[in-house]
Amino acid sequence: MRHPLSILLALLGISASAHAQHPLRHFTDAVEARFARSQPVIRYVLRASDADSTRFDVEVHLRGARDTFQVAMAKHPEYDDRFWRFVEGLRVESRVGGATVTREDSALWRVIAPGGEATLRYSLHLPPAPPAPRPAWRPFLSPTGGLVGSAHAFMYVVGAELAPAHVTLELPAAWRVATGLEPTADPRTFFAPSAYVLVESPILVGRLRSWRFAVDGVPHRVVYWPRPDATPFDTAAFVSGLERLTRQAVALFGRAPYREYTFLYQDAAYGALEHPNSVTLGAPSADLARDVHSALEESAHEFVHTWNIMRIRPAEYRGVDYRAITPPAGLWFSEGLSMFYADLLLRRAGLPVEDSTRIAHLEHLITRYLASPGNAHFSAEQLSRVAYGSRPDALGDYEGGPHLPGELIGAMLDLVIRDATSSRRSMDDVMRTMLERFSGEQGFTGADVERVVREVCACEVHALFEGHVRGASVISFDRYLALAGLRTRVTRTPVLRDGQPEPDYRIRAWIPPGDSVLALLLSDPASVWGRAGLHTGDRLTAVNGTPMRTSGELRSLIGRLRVGDTVRVALAGTNSASVRPASVRPPGARTVTVVVTGYDQPVVRIEEVPGASDRSRALRERWLSGAP
Fold first, then answer.
1. Cα dihedral angle (458, 459, 463, 466), rounded to 10 degrees?
2. Alpha-carbon distance 308 to 339, whole Å?
3. 225: closest CA among 277, 189, 191, 263?
4. DSSP code, position 73
5. Distance from C-alpha of 17 to C-alpha of 455, rounded to nearest angstrom
6. Per DSSP, which regions of 473-620 are E strands?
7. Please, are residues 126 and 140 in contact by the beta-carbon 8 Å criterion?
8. Cα 471 from chain centroid?
9. What would the pLDDT profile of 291-325 be if each residue is shown by its tens digit?
10. Is residue 234 classed as helix, strand or coil in its secondary structure?
């Protein structure tokens, strides 16, 4: 047993060594815009019409720039939709004449404007709208509103990323505006203190509904864009749930890190994307009518990102840039711990969650973890590096991501910390310390997370990080659950559909860049497809004599298979660009015969350990309650 004095000294050492990266260093920093002759004066005008849902127009007015400068469209580290592809009619004008603009790269242009005063004009021709629902973070326009602005719309001046700017919106008179940009005396003009804020502030416009609440006096807006045929839902319960969630998140971190916050919800959309003081989320009105809390889990995850990725950020995140970043190794923490707290904060707020208890939730997570062998084949850091912007075949014959392993590592660390400190501390203390240390100029690495956890619990966690964060061994769940007097019981059972074994459908395909032939994608080398000798990257030409030209054609054919069916998979020669297991060097064109079978899945149950100590039972009860 650790001596109480040693624990106290270690905990006191945290406050001595945790130097907060306070956003203000001097009272002169607390201004909206600093004077700098080297920074140009920038003003944007964005025009959108309710009569044209295909485009919007942008003007960039610059004064005090260099005679030659570059403008670019920022690359988002998660969802790079490459909207530079849709820029049309880019031109530059100057009062003295002689201004030119030349494209230097896909998202980069060089401008020559004698005297440093110029106006850039361009249009964004929106790509065709996908079948509903659409991604909530992508711009769109309709006769009743849309989503504009942010990295999808505004070019920034390279080298002047800290220059402030004003944005004026010219919109239909009946349209309202909701954005994280700072308002001004003009209700259609907004302020961005830097290019980063500009591209991280989407603008929802149109016939909006909105509600407000305050936490610690900080205003929060809930804005909803409904389709004309929107289904009515209980808006009071909807907003009340968000307010309860917000209060728990602010309590976790100690304070709100923004002047105000805006939830930007959209009907007929899916997904979400976090920003420093706002979030775009899809919340179909029909879903909310069936269950007014249906958007809460995703809202919780994205809202925790306000702290855990927008402030506590991986070291590789460097602000606004048109170039790709180094793939971050710390997304297991940024995504996984946000998932961990999405569930926990909803429980603390007394709001509905998918799993009835924390034990049921953990059973669900471990079952999913064990069902995907990629989690034991790659480390959490390796999975983090391919989470965004990577090819779908980046993991070879496996698939996986950082969210699930990261959430489970966070859960095991929480048990370790609670055990080492007799439940006086938890992952809550890790999150607050990480916020203090890594919300300024310095981002975090995996070693930083390990160091903070070690200091918070005054215990050794190196083996856990070596084995499961940097290494690719299966998480030793029973080792950590035993601290709370718990253990797993894992069995395997056939996957059934309508009471019958479900065929092994675990194969899909895509067309890699530079190729015109489908390439296979496996998720498990132990699937019936992998056991037959197929691999990710195999180039598919036909199945049972039927040519396969699109992924949808393969998906449709596979979906009609039954257990016992024989499938003849015709393959073309290999493509050198394919991602394949290093040991696999198959010949050229060939046919592989597969007999379809069912497959098993793990089933995890967590049970109490007989004769667990009083200390373990006390830890378990506090953990089950969800208390800090």
1. -10
2. 10
3. 263
4. -
5. 10
6. 486-494, 496-497, 500-501, 507-510, 518-522, 539-543, 546-547, 566-571, 590-595, 600-608
7. yes
8. 23
9. 999 999 999 999 999 999 999 999 999 899 999 99
10. coil
Instruction: Please state, as a whole number, how many other Cβ atoms lie within 10 Å of the Cβ of residue 193.
Output: 17
The token duo for 326 is: 């180094």
CA angle, 471 as apex, 466 and 477 as ends, to 5°?
80
C-alpha 554/C-alpha 521 separation (Å) is: 11
Is the distance from CB of 233 to CB of 265 less than 8 angstroms? no
Coil, helix or strand at residue 276: coil
> What's the rounded Cα separation, in Å, for the pair 83 and 124?
8
Taking each helix axis from N to C end, the angle separating 427-438 and 446-457, rounded to the nearest 10 degrees, works out to: 130
The residue type at 274: E
Confidence at 33, pLDDT banded by 50, 70, 90: confident
Token look-up 């006390």 returns: 618
Q: In terms of pLDDT, which residue wins out, 112 or 628?
A: 112
Residue 15 has pLDDT above 90, yes or no: no
The CA dihedral of 570, 572, 575, 581, to the nearest 10 degrees, is 30
At a CB cut-off of 8 Å and minimum separation 6, what does 541 contact? 517, 518, 547, 548, 570, 571, 572, 589
- Which pair of tokens denotes residue 82? 């490459």
- How many C-beta atoms lie closer than 10 Å to residue 360's C-beta? 14
Task: Count how many residues are written for the chain.
Answer: 628
Contacts of 315 (CB under 8 A, 6+ apart): 328, 330, 442, 443, 444, 445
Question: For the segment 419-474, what is each residue's pLDDT rounded down to a tens digit?
Answer: 999 999 999 999 999 999 999 889 999 999 999 999 999 999 999 999 999 999 99
| Contact (CB, 8 A) for 18 and 433 | yes
Q: What is the CA radius of gyration of the chain?
A: 27
Q: What is the pLDDT of residue 388?
A: 93
Question: What percent of the chain shows pLDDT beyond 70?
Answer: 94
Give the helix ranges, DSSP H, for 72-226. 195-199
Residue 94 CA: distances (Å) to CA of 37, 47, 413? 20, 21, 59
Contacts for 451 with CB less than 8 Å, ≥ 6 apart? none
Q: Are 587 and 555 in contact (CB under 8 A)?
A: no
Who's near 438: CB < 8 A, 6+ residues apart?
21, 311, 312, 313, 444, 448
**Environment class of 338 (CB within 10 Å of its CB; exposed 0-12, middle 13-18, buried 19+):** buried
pTM value surpassing 0.85: yes
Please state, in angstroms and rounded to a whole number, the distance separating the CA atoms of residues 561 and 567.
9
Residue 447's alpha-carbon distances to 333, 353, 381, 403, 504, in angstroms, are 12, 33, 11, 19, 40
Distance CA 83, CA 58 (A): 14
Is 60 exceeded by the pLDDT of residue 546? yes
Cα-flanking dihedrals φ and ψ of residue 548, to 5°? Answer: -115, 110
CA distance linking residue 335 with residue 302, whole number of Å: 9
> What whole-number distance in Å separates Cα of residue 359 and Cα of residue 366?
11
- The tokens of 521 are what? 């994608």
> What is the distance between the alpha carbons of residues 192 and 167, in angstroms, rounded to a whole number?
8
> Taking a C-beta distance cutoff of 8 angstroms, is the pair 498, 487 a contact?
no
Q: Which of 183, 165, 182 is nearest to 45 (CA)?
A: 165
